[in-house]
Every structure is written in structure tokens, then in C-alpha cells.
């Protein structure tokens, strides 16, 4: 990690200009990420996922319908895994998305799963019962992969654990090949997102703001995705987009 990036990550987010949100959402949203340095916040997030909440993460994904709806998203080829040869699953957690990758990616596709929490990777390995994925402990702000290593990335509800989306997205852009595609899902700055923030100690993102950051980094929003027609009508389910590296 460069000295400039290290200094930026050590700076409390509270020093950055606040974003406008509805009063109730501001009240509900967890503020830890705004009060401490990234280094301290990262350790607290690891504690959350190493502990009881991490142990029930897979069950929560089923109860919240994120797991079955995510399966439907990939089964219906809304995000098409066919043709991908080297897939990176960001913040694999209990293997919720990796499970879908094993089902819908080409049989010869190499799958790399990484997470900040070694305990979560252990749970993923036990849950998936597959020797196919490669598991790596890593931080999204400083990935241990060479430039242009992957032609496909899945990043499900991880970006909200960074104070600044640009840092993580820049790293993902670096390890993506030109033309590589990314499935990005993250928590939006609405009422349901604020509740998610409080439960999982994360932040939320404004859709337009995130779009601008991606464009600045050469990550084009190819299309917005929705779990179902009802999610689209209600603008629910968080931010879900297919991104292509230019």
C-alpha cells in the first residue's frame, strides 16, 4: 500500500464533507465508520464477522431472500457468467455468492474467494464442500493479486465496509482485465439501507455518487439490475449493477 493511500485510510471519515440524507436515515445509520480511522474500523468489522453474527450470516442471507434472489439473478443470466475464465469473489463471507458461482460458472472457470475474516473463509469452505475455489485472506484496499488478473468479479455487499468507495473500486479496477465485468451489489442510502447499516456496522452509498466514482475510474455501468420487477418498481434491494472495465 502506498504512503499516500495509508495516510488517507488512517484519516477519520468524519473529516470529509457529509452527504445529505433524510433525517430518519441519518438517525438509523451506524456512525462508527465516521468516527474512527479505517484501521480501527477494519478490526471492529473483522470482530463482527468472526463472531456470532458471522456464524449466522448464511442463514440471514436466506431469510432476507438475498441468497435465493441472488441465485435467480445468475440462473436467469441477468449477470451472465458464461465465458468467464478467472472469477474473483470479493468478501466471500459464508460463500453465499461463491455457491452460485459453482453452479452457474463454466466448469473450467477458476474461482478465487477472499475475505478480511479468516473465520468466514473457514465457514465458507465448510459450507461449500468444494475444493474448486481458492481461498485467500485479503483487504479490499490492498489486494494481493497482479494487475489484470481477472475477467469477472462479483462484489456482494462489501463496498459498504469502506469509508471511501473509490479506494476499493480502484483496486478492483487494477486487478480486472480490460473488458472484464463486475457484478456489484451494495447498500443504498435509503430506509432499508440504514437498518442494514445499523445491524452490520457498515455505511451506505448514494446511487448517483457511486455512479460518478465508477465513471471516474473507467468502470462503466453497463446496466442496472433488479432482483424482480417489483424490486425495480419499488426501487428496493439496494444498488445492483453490471460494470465493465473500459
Quick summary:
With 246 residues, this protein is of the alpha/beta class.
Defining key terms:
disordered N terminus, 7-stranded mixed β-sheet, Rossmann fold, single chain, alpha/beta, 246 residues
**Low-confidence sequence ranges:** 1-19
| CATH architecture tag | 3-Layer(aba) Sandwich
Described by strand count, sense and barrel closure, the largest sheet is: 7 strands, mixed
Tell me the name of the CATH homologous superfamily: Vaccinia Virus protein VP39
CATH class: Alpha Beta
Please provide the ordered H/E string of secondary-structure elements. HHHHHHHEHEHEEHEHHEHE
The total beta strand count reads 7
How big is the Rg? 17 Å
According to CATH, the fold-level topology is Rossmann fold
Percent of sequence in beta strands: 15-25%
Helix fraction by DSSP (H/I, runs of at least 4): 40-55%
Q: Please report the distance between the alpha carbons of the first and last residues.
A: 24 Å
Structural class: alpha/beta
Count of helices? 13
> How many domain units?
1
The dominant shape is globular
What is the average of the pLDDT values?
Answer: 89
For the biggest β-sheet, the strand order reads 3-2-1-4-5-7-6
Architecture blueprint of SSEs:
Layout: H1 3-9, H2 23-28, H3 32-35, H4 38-50, H5 52-55, H6 57-63, H7 66-75, E1 86-90, H8 96-104, E2 110-115, H9 118-128, E3 134-137, E4 150-156, H10 165-175, E5 176-186, H11 191-200, H12 207-216, E6 219-224, H13 229-234, E7 239-245
Parallel strand pairs: 1-2, 1-4, 2-3, 4-5
Antiparallel strand pairs: 5-7, 6-7
Amino acid at each position: 500500500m502506498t504512503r499516500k493511500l495509508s495516510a488517507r485510510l488512517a484519516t477519520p471519515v468524519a473529516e470529509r464533507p457529509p452527504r445529505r440524507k433524510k433525517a430518519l436515515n441519518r438517525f438509523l445509520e451506524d456512525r462508527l465508520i465516521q468516527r474512527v480511522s479505517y484501521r480501527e474500523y477494519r478490526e471492529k468489522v473483522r470482530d463482527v464477522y468472526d463472531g456470532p453474527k458471522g456464524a449466522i450470516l448464511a442463514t440471514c442471507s436466506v431469510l432476507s431472500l438475498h441468497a435465493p434472489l441472488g441465485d435467480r439473478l445468475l440462473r436467469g443470466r441477468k449477470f451472465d457468467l458464461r465465458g468467464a475464465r478467472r472469477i474473483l469473489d470479493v468478501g466471500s463471507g459464508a460463500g453465499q455468492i461463491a455457491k452460485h458461482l459453482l453452479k452457474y460458472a463454466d466448469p473450467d472457470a477458476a474461482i478465487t474467494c477472499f475475505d478480511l475474516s479468516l473465520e468466514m473463509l473457514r465457514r465458507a469452505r465448510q459450507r461449500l464442500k468444494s475444493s474448486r475455489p481458492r481461498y485467500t485472506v485479503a483487504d479490499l484496499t490492498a489486494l494481493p493479486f497482479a494487475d489484470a488478473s481477472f475477467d469477472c468479479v462479483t462484489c456482494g455487499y462489501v463496498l459498504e465496509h469502506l469509508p471511501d468507495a473509490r479506494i476499493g473500486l480502484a483496486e478492483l479496477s487494477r486487478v480486472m482485465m480490460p473488458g472484464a465485468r463486475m457484478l456489484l451489489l451494495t447498500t443504498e442510502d435509503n430506509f432499508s439501507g440504514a437498518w442494514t447499516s445499523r445491524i452490520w456496522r457498515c455505511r451506505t452509498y448514494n446511487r448517483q455518487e457511486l455512479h460518478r466514482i465508477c465513471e471516474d475510474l473507467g468502470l462503466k455501468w453497463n446496466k442496472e439490475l433488479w432482483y424482480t420487477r417489483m424490486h425495480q418498481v419499488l426501487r428496493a434491494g439496494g444498488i445492483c449493477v453490471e460494470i465493465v472495465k473500459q
